[in-house]
Every structure is written in C-alpha cells, then in structure tokens.
Amino acid sequence: MAFKDVPGNTRVKRILKLALERGRVPNSLIFGGPPGAGKTDMALTLAKALNCQALADDSCDDCPSCRAVDNGRHPDVVVLAAEVRDVKIEQTRFLKQMAYLRPMTGRRRVFVIREAESLNDPSANSLLKVLEEPPSFCHIILVTDSPHRLLPTIRSRCRTLAFSAIGREEIEERLLARAFSREQARLLALLSRGDFDRAQEFEWEKVQELRDNAWTLFEALGSAERPGLFLERFGSVPKAAEEEFGEVLEVFSSFARDILLLRLGGDPALLLNPDYEGRLRAAAAAWAAPRAVAVVEELDRTLADLRGNLNKGLLALTFFSNVTELAHV
Ligand SMILES: [Zn+2]
How far is the CA of 45 from the centre of ligand 1 (A)? Predict the structure, then answer.
C-alpha cells in the first residue's frame, strides 16, 4: 500500500514523505502507538518507498521492488518477530551482521522489528551499537504498542514517531468501502475503538450476537428484578473475558447514546442501533435525560480506565454500583 492507503496518522505520513523527499529518513526509528493504528503498514510502506524504483517519496506498489516487499521476498527488507514473543539473541546478532552489509538489490536495507517491547535485555543491548551508529544505507524500525517499555538506552538512540488511534469517521468510511451498510459501518467504527485491525476483522453476525447479549445485560442493569446479571457475567473478569468486557461496554455506550438521542428528540436516522429503535424508545420513555447523560459519562470514564491497566473486576464493580445508583435519578 501507498501512504494514502495506510489509515489515519496524517502527521506521521507528512513527516515521512518530507524526509523521503529530502533523503533524510532517520536510520533508527520507533513507531509507537495503540494497537491497530497502522504502525506495521506504515513501516512496510516506508521500506517500499525507500527502495521503490518508480517513486522517490512513496511506494508505487507496482515495481519489482515494491512487489517483492509485499510478497515478503525482498532480500533487503526484513521483518522480525511477528509471531515470536521474544526476539532471540541469535536474531539480533544476525540483524547486526546484516545491517553492515550493503543492500543486495535495493538502495536501502530495512529491518522492521514488530512487538519491539518484547526484546529481552541481551537482545536490546546487542542492538544498541547498530542503533547508535547505523550505516547510512540501513534503517531499523522498532514497532511497538508500548514505547515506554523499551529500554531508555534504546529510546534515546531512536527518533520516535507517535501514532494515534484511527478516527471513527475514517474507520467508518473505510468499512463503507468494504460493502458494509452505513448503519453497520457507523456501529462497527464505534466498537473498534480506533483499532483499524479489529475493525477489519469484525463479522456482522458475531456483532449481532454480541449486541443481543449486551442488551439483555443492559436492560437488567436498570430493572428491579435482575440488576445483578451484569455482575454474574463480569463480577470478576478473567483474562479470556477481557476483550468481551470491553466490547460489551462499547455496545452499552452505543445504547446509552441512542437513548439520549431519543430522549432529546433527535433524528432517529442518527441512531447507532436503528434496528433496536422499539426497545430503545421504551427505555428512553423510562429514563430522564440527566440519567442518560450520566450513564454515557460513566461509560466513557470506564472505557478510558479500561485502556489503562486497571483491575478489570474492580472496574466492573465500580461501573455497576455507579450505574445502578443512577437508575434512581
Ligand atoms: Zn515501487
């Protein structure tokens, strides 16, 4: 893909294109930012642009060099550690040896190290020298969701480009281009929480199932009979349920926003869950607007905390107790 095909992060693209035009792409780079922000795609596009036979500041996606990178068969572009948690010391030794060899066919030798935060100390230390004084023809791109977990000595030797989560509108537009309806794309974009990779993996049937389950829990939260249903499910959040917990909260947030919209007399065409309009109207009739606002706020806060590394079970408890209290607003 060319830079325009990599989602979001226009600032990073601008910096890289300028650097390419001027022939001044830093040799040691960190691409850091949240999961699904397009860091690896950006790294591979940069690797292609550095070697493209047709363009100076982008990938043409068509010349033999660009195609070889796409096929994973370019001798000068090496991607390490996609699936291993630990970049082994032998791999970094190999990288160090390779780094000083002139490129075989391309102009630049590029190493992309994914999940660079899992470099163990010996591997990281063995990389320091090459990161400090890389040969002019060699670029090392460390890709990581957690740049703060890299050794300070690594960070100080690299130029860090900070990636941001992809905007909801952009994810929505890209999903629309992939045969989702406007309503589906709008909801999926919300559920993806800025993670473009996740957005691409969604299957509509699974999302329907998730919404049905979430509605049962959501309704129970406000009912006198079974308010504890949510806690039965998420009172302790085992690792395996963490992703589902986040997804359920995201769906709750879409329900609460819809209820608020209806409560304020907004246009039903703007509902995130138009197929739930009947149930949402029934709920909206029973909810005062301040309660809807407070629940939306509570969900935003919980979702923000969820991104930090707080105890999920405690988050679920706090959320539950705050929201059930709001039922009496
Ligand atoms: Zn090309």
Answer: 10
Q: Comparing 267 with 95, which gets the higher pLDDT?
A: 267
49 alpha carbon – ligand 1 mean position (Å): 7
Q: Which domains does the chain have, with CATH numbers?
A: 3-162 (3.40.50.300), 203-326 (1.20.272)
Span 304-328, pLDDT tens digits: 888 776 788 888 888 888 888 877 6
Sole residue written with tokens 């000068």: 76
d(CA 278, CA 268): 11
pLDDT > 70: what percent of the chain?
A: 96
Of 107-121, 181-195, 223-237, 314-328, least confident by mean pLDDT is: 223-237
Give pLDDT tens digits for 92-146: 777 888 888 888 888 899 999 998 988 877 778 888 888 888 899 999 999 999 9
Ligand 1 centroid – CA 67 distance (Å):
7
What DSSP state is assigned to residue 229? H
> Minimal CA–CA distance to 273: which of 179, 200, 177, 207?
207
Q: How far is the CA of 22 from the centre of ligand 1 (A)?
A: 18
Give the helix/strand (H/E) hosting 254. Answer: helix 242-263
Residue 252: CB partners within 8 Å, gap ≥ 6?
214, 217, 218, 299
Q: How far is the CA of 127 from the centre of ligand 1 (A)?
A: 29
Helix (H, G, I), strand (E, B) or coil at 159: strand
Nearest-angstrom CA–CA distance, 159 and 150: 13
User: For residue 69, how far is its CA from the centre of ligand 1 (angstroms)?
Assistant: 9
The pTM of this model reads: 0.80
Enumerate long-range contacts of 80-83, CB under 8 Å, 24 or more apart: 80/111, 80/112, 80/113, 80/114, 81/113, 81/114, 81/115, 81/116, 81/118, 82/114, 82/115
Q: What is the distance between the alpha carbons of residues 27 and 134, in angstroms, rounded to a whole number?
A: 6
> Crossing angle for the helix pair 277-286 and 204-222, nearest 10 degrees?
20
